[in-house]
Design a protein that fits this description.
The mean pLDDT is about 95. The protein is about 55% helix and about 15% strand. The chain is globular, with a radius of gyration of 21 Å. It has two domains: about 5-175, NAD(P)-binding Rossmann-like Domain (Rossmann fold); about 180-290, Orthogonal Bundle (6-phosphogluconate dehydrogenase C-terminal fold). By secondary structure, the protein is an alpha/beta fold.
C-alpha cells in the first residue's frame, strides 16, 4: 500500500513512531504532523519523524489521503472539527485511541458529513515514556492492531486501515467498538489503575523514608506503566468509566476474598491463588511467544 500524504495529528510516542515507521517503509510520499508547541516543530523535523510539522492542523490535513489522530482522547473531537473543513474528499480518518465507543460515536458522523470515512483503530503498543524523543520505528512490529468498524463503515476504508497496520508490521484484528472497550478495560485500563495505586500507596510520603530503599525489581516492573501520561490516562479512564468501574468492582472483590483467606490462614486457598495466576500467565506468555 502506498499513500500520497499521511497526516499525523499529535506527534508524541505513538505519532512519532508512526511517522518513523511510515517513512522507513516508504508507505507515503509525504508525512506531515500537527503539534501543539512551536518548539516541537524543529524537534520533529530533527528526529526525522515527519517531513513537515506545523501548529496549523488544517495545513497538516490538507490533501492528506489518510489522517491519524494520535492525541489524548479529550482533544480528538475539537481537533476534528477544526481540520474537517480542510479534509480531502474520500480521505480516511483513523485514530490510535485506547477507547473506541465514544470516539467512534463522535467522529464517524462528523467525518462522514465532511465527505470522508472514519474507521476507529487501536494498536496494542506503547510504553511508559512520553514524547516524540521516545518514538521508534519498530513500535508496531508484531503488535495486535484492533480495527473497530460499524455497520456504517465504508468497506474499502476498513480494508485500507487494516492494510495500513499490516504494512507497519502489525497484526490487524477486527472487532466492534463495544467489544473493544470491554476487553481493554481488563487487559489495559485496569492494570494501569493498579500500577498507579501501587505507586501512590507504596511511595506515599506517609511511609518511612526507608520504604523507597526496599522497592526493588518487582516493584519497578509492576509499576512501570504508572509513568505514563496523566492527561492521556485521565481521558481513558473517564471515556471508558462504565467498563472500568465494573471490572474494578470484580477485582476488588477478588482481593477481598484473598484477604479473607489470609486472615483465616487458609493455606490451600492462598496456594491456589498463586498457582492459578502462574498457570494462566505461563500459558499466555507461551502463546504470545509462539505467535511472535
Amino acid at each position: 500500500m502506498h499513500w500520497q500524504k499521511i497526516a499525523l495529528i499529535g506527534v508524541g510516542l505513538l505519532g512519532g513512531s508512526l511517522g518513523l515507521a511510515v517513512r522507513e517503509r516508504k508507505l507515503a510520499v509525504k508525512v506531515d504532523g500537527h503539534v501543539r508547541r512551536t518548539a516541537s516543530i524543529a524537534e520533529c523535523e530533527r528526529l526525522g519523524v515527519v517531513d513537515h510539522a506545523t501548529r496549523e492542523v488544517g495545513r497538516a490535513v490538507e490533501n492528506a489521503d489518510l489522517v491519524v489522530l494520535c492525541t489524548p482522547l479529550g482533544q480528538m473531537r475539537e481537533l476534528a472539527r477544526e481540520f474537517l473543513p480542510c479534509l480531502k474528499p474520500g480521505a480516511i480518518v483513523t485514530d490510535v485511541g485506547s477507547v473506541k465507543g465514544i470516539v467512534v460515536r463522535e467522529l464517524e458522523p462528523l467525518v462522514a458529513a465532511a465527505g470522508g470515512h472514519f474507521v476507529g483503530s487501536h494498536p496494542m503498543a506503547g510504553g511508559e515514556k512520553v514524547g516524540v524523543a521516545a518514538a521508534r520505528a519498530d513500535l508496531f512490529h508484531n503488535a495486535i492492531c484492533l480495527v473497530t468498524p460499524t455497520p456504517r463503515s465504508d468497506r474499502g476504508a476498513v480494508l485500507q486501515v487494516e492494510e495500513f497496520w499490516r504494512a507497519l508490521g502489525g497484526r490487524p484484528v477486527r472487532i466492534s467498538p463495544a467489544q473493544h472497550d470491554d476487553l481493554v478495560s481488563r487487559s489495559s485500563h485496569l492494570p494501569h489503575v493498579v500500577a498507579a495505586e501501587l505507586a501512590n500507596y507504596v511511595l506515599s510520603p506517609a511511609h518511612p523514608k526507608e520504604q523507597a530503599l526496599v522497592c526493588a525489581t518487582g516493584f519497578r516492573d509492576t509499576t512501570r506503566i504508572a509513568s505514563g501520561s496523566p492527561e492521556m490516562w485521565r481521558d481513558i479512564a473517564l471515556a471508558n468509566r462504565e467498563h472500568l468501574s465494573r471490572v474494578l468492582g470484580v477485582f476488588i472483590e477478588d482481593l477481598v476474598e484473598f484477604r479473607l483467606a489470609l486472615d483465616n490462614g487458609d493455606h490451600k486457598a492462598i496456594e491456589e491463588f498463586f498457582e492459578n495466576a502462574k498457570a494462566r500467565r505461563d500459558q499466555w506468555t507461551g502463546a504470545v511467544d509462539a505467535a511472535g
